[in-house]
Amino acid sequence: MSEERLWRVRDRVRPFPDFPVPGVLFRDISPLLKDPAAFRTLIDLLEDHLRASFPKIDFIVGLDSRGFLIGPPLAQRLGIGFVLIRKKGKLPGPTESVSYALEYGKAELEIQSDAVEPGQKVVIVDDLLATGGTMSAACELVKRLKAEVLECLVIIELKLLKGSEKLGSIPFYSLLQYD
Predict the structure, then answer these.
(1) Where are the alpha helices (DSSP H) in 17-145?
(2) 1 pLDDT exceeds 90?
(3) Active-site residue flag, 86
(4) What is the DSSP letter of 138?
């Protein structure tokens, strides 16, 4: 991976201090999405990583909602399908759901029961990994459908929050890391 390409992406991540609450430094990917060259570079870098790492992937699974922004173009580049994991109550038909803890309360994620078949190989994508709760819940959903999670992939990892530890033995990749 060239440092120049990586910096093209990093330069389009904007910090917002004290958002959404005081003491939090929010990493905003909106400028990255607005810049077609930088966004193309992002998808190029993620595609290069996945092609080098995995000879066969059946689906990209994207997390609600920013995983929906990077997942479909990445899946298209790889010539594979895209699967949604959504907040509870947003998917039609039979679903599997899992509850997980948030800082202040609980949340639930769902996947359609027929979204993947047993033994299929998937990569789960999102924009950011913080505490790891949402990504860990997504992994649980995919495992319930007896598919194999090859990797969890994000644009940004907030290292100090140690979210990747919640993923246990599931491989994890982040393009950009911040303390």
Answers:
(1) 30-34, 36-53, 67-78, 133-144
(2) no
(3) no
(4) H
